[in-house]
Specification:
With 234 residues, the protein is an alpha/beta fold. Helix content is 47%, strand content 15%. Bound molecules: 3-methylbut-3-enyl trihydrogen diphosphate (2 copies) and magnesium ion (MG). The site of one 3-methylbut-3-enyl trihydrogen diphosphate has 10 residues, from α1.
Length: 234
């Protein structure tokens, strides 16, 4: 089971409380920690959290640098927790544009948590699904002698965004904050994902909300283009 989450609404959460947007991002980190723990308890295999998109570089410089500092500090703290809880932590996205201190923290966190088997936590940073697809396509074009299958493309995609190996497609995609869009997240991997949009802002999203999303997902009839279970039985 692979769950993707677009953790949206930190800024609005803070603004509604007359706090700076950065306070929302701090609260967002605490929410992420709770959901990672819930995911371990719920036996989720892979959890991918969208933390910073390639387009988020376009935000005001002060917000971007606050986010980079927060990411770095959180990675250090969370890697330790992940290590204790048997969670493997990896970062997906580009790395060449990250501040040096963050790149070092990323490599450190991945190294420390490599042996985790309870959950594979992927955090998307400087991530753009379209850019990743383009780069994977370029890699495919560079070795035309190899037949291009979906499996091979998934492997190329994993390589360009630094996944240690391809992960299964997303089963359930959750977006908080009320918007109903993908914002360039996991476009290839979400081909048959069930979509779950919630109004609640990310800092307020808790285990109850997470379990409610899982519960609703379990009741859905995933057909993958075939006929439904009821139709097949009848
Ligand atoms: C999501 O919250 C976190 C990041 C994109 C880093 P936002 O910062 O987008 O919060 P809103 O959507 O402005 O409320
Ligand atoms: C998507 O949220 C990126 C993350 C949650 C990290 P945005 O807030 O950047 O997306 P848009 O701008 O509303 O589409
Ligand atoms: Mg947003």
């Amino acid at each position: 089971m692979h769950i993707g989450i677009i953790m949206d609404g930190n800024g609005r959460w803070a603004t509604a409380r007359a706090l700076p947007r950065t306070a929302g991002h701090h609260a967002g980190v605490r929410a992420a920690r709770r959901i990672v723990e819930s995911a371990v308890r719920a036996d989720v295999d892979v959890l991918t959290l969208y933390a910073f998109s390639a387009d988020n570089w376009g935000r005001p410089r002060t917000e971007v640098s606050a986010l980079m500092r927060l990411l770095r500090r959180s990675l250090d703290v969370e890697a330790k927790r992940c290590e204790e809880n048997g969670v493997r932590l990896t970062i997906v996205g580009r790395r060449d544009r990250l501040p040096n201190m963050l790149r070092v923290a990323v490599e450190d966190a991945e190294e420390r948590t490599r042996a985790g088997t309870n959950l594979h936590l992927r955090v998307a940073v400087d991530y753009s699904a379209r850019d990743a697809i383009l780069r994977a396509a370029a890699a495919a074009a560079a070795s035309p002698e190899q037949p291009l299958t979906r499996e091979r493309f998934s492997a190329l995609l994993a390589a360009v965004h630094h996944d240690p190996e391809p992960v299964p497609d997303v089963d359930l995609l959750i977006r908080t904050g009320g918007e109903q869009r993908l914002s360039d997240f996991l476009l290839w991997e979400c081909a048959y994902a069930e979509l779950h949009f919630v109004r609640r802002m990310w800092p307020d999203f808790g285990e109850d909300d997470f379990l409610a999303a899982l519960h609703e997902f379990q009741a859905r009839d995933r057909r993958f283009g075939a006929v439904g279970q009821q139709a097949a039985a009848g």
